Amino acid sequence: MDSKDRNAKLSRLRELALQGGGEKRIAKQHAQGSLTARERLELLLDDGSLEEFDMLKTHRSTNFGLDKQKYYGDGVVTGYGTIDGRLVYVFSQDFTVFGGSLSETFAEKIKKVMDMAAQNGAPLIGLNDSGGARIQEGIGSLAGYGDIFLKNVLYSGVIPQISVILGPCAGGAVYSPAITDFTIMVENTSYMFVTGPDVVRAVTGEDVTKDELGGPFVHSQRSGVSHIVCKDEKEALLLVRKLFSYMPQNNMEDPVAIPCSDSPDRSEDWLDEFIPENPNKPYDMRKVISAITDHGEFLEIQRAYAQNIIIGFGRMNGKPVGIVANQPSFLAGVLDIDASVKAARFVRFCDAFNIPLLTFVDVPGFMPGTKQEYGGIIRNGAKLLYAYAEATVPKVTVITRKAYGGAYDVMSSKHLRSDLNFAWPSAEIAVMGPEGAVNIIFRSELAESTDPEARRAELVKEYRDKFANPYDAASRGYIDAVIMPRETRFRIIKSLEMLQGKRQEIPAKKHGNIPL
Fold first, then answer.
1. Three-state SS for 207?
2. Which residues are marked as active site?
3. What's the per-residue H, E or C state across 218-273?
4. Secondary structure E strands in 347-439
5. At what angle are helices 377-390 and 337-352 packed, to 10 degrees?
6. Phi, psi (5° rounding) for residue 91?
7. 385-418, pLDDT tens digit by residue?
């Protein structure tokens, strides 16, 4: 075979690999509103930056006629490229080849890019569109999943890992995304479930649709599995690029700062009057966040889940920060099971990847009641406490209004090694609200009073003047400064600049035992 024939053969093989499962299946994919595996990578990565591995790899199985069905690439496109010039490793599952099912060689391809990502200190982004393990391969495919899960765990906290769900993912196909840092789904085409509706119907007799069982709104609103839901694949892939911009390459680097044209000393005077006079009246904490971040930009994570707490990314003078905030306009910003777990995992991500933490506090306490107690509010609430106490990144806290009881401690208080804690004049730092405290402390006196309501009002005012303010905490050094709300942006930026060289360690150990 001369060089011309050899070159022609390579061209033919490459062309076959690029066809995936063939024109008919590609057409079907497009008809369903879905892109192909490579089309997705073209949107995700910088133009022309994809360098592909194992394009000509095929499965080795001969079971159930598989020896007669072979496709180059075996159902997954793997390689590396860049996003805004920064190196990332990628895999993109191809539903046109065996329904994107995972085989032994399919898994080998993914494991290779996972190892290379960890070895070279670059993020891993997985585009998932898989029906699960390839049944014809039996233990080989199960072993492949197990190997991938292990690498997800070993590289967790070493490199950022992002999963995008772009089709019906079932069985083993959902556990790897669940271990990664962020999972993004798409309306109408994304599904995640351990077992599909048919199996559920056969085993439990429960009649449920794909959407009801594992659609994007189920996982973004009820289970918390999905962090963000996008309207289509293009939006999802562009959002990954934006999300990635807040992250460093790995756990040994800092997140990337960008030039900022928003003045650090920009003053928002309206904040001075923003907190309602009535301590029980709600307000939207997002307005506070947008008032202090660069150009008001905030990328919220898990917006529809546990809405009593807000998490997401913003920038302060060009530098990324992770933001956690109670939301007074939903359940009064109370901490419950879901909110505690949601915030705890986000805090741990930021700490793992050197992203400073900014916390806004307006919390009346932990949610009471049998449902929360039986569900383990003690154990789950302790996860957030644990996460903040363990975090060694710069931590700045601003108390805008209520900081009551144990929830005051948990929300990045000075006692959990927060670096700088500010309070607005409207802050109320106490064991509990004035009304509840008075009812307990002065129960006997009120019972004997000739005018209990008038006396209660006097005692509530007395308690509020003495404890429901930031000044007792400030006098003890638990609040570093009481600041005017309009100064908040400037004070936070100056604080983070001061803290950028922070070095803090935890006692040497294999790992702690977070109350899972």
1. coil
2. 171-172, 406-407
3. HHHHCCCCCCEEECCHHHHHHHHHHHHCCCCCCCCCCCCCCCCCCCCCCCCHHHHH
4. 357-363, 395-404, 420-423, 428-430
5. 20
6. -140, 145
7. 999 999 999 999 999 999 999 999 999 999 999 9
**Cα 188-193-203 angle, rounded to 5 deg:** 120
Distance CA 193, CA 169 (A): 7
Q: Is the pLDDT reported for residue 458 higher than 70?
A: yes
Q: Are 127 and 91 within 8 A, CB to CB?
A: yes
Cα–Cα distance for residue pair 483/467, rounded to 1 Å: 18
Q: How many residues does the chain have?
A: 516
The H or E element containing residue 322 is strand 319-326
pLDDT in tens, 11-33: 787 777 677 666 787 888 888 88
Single-letter code of the amino acid located at 295: H
CA distances from 426 to 140, 306, 398, 468 (A): 62, 25, 11, 9
Share of the chain above pLDDT 90, in %: 72
Is 68:39 a contact under the CB 8 Å cutoff? no
Q: Is the pLDDT of residue 250 over 90?
A: yes
59, 77 Cβ separation under 8 angstroms:
no
Average pLDDT score over residue span 142-147: 90
pLDDT tens figures, 269-328 = 999 999 999 989 999 999 999 999 999 999 999 999 999 999 999 999 999 999 999 999
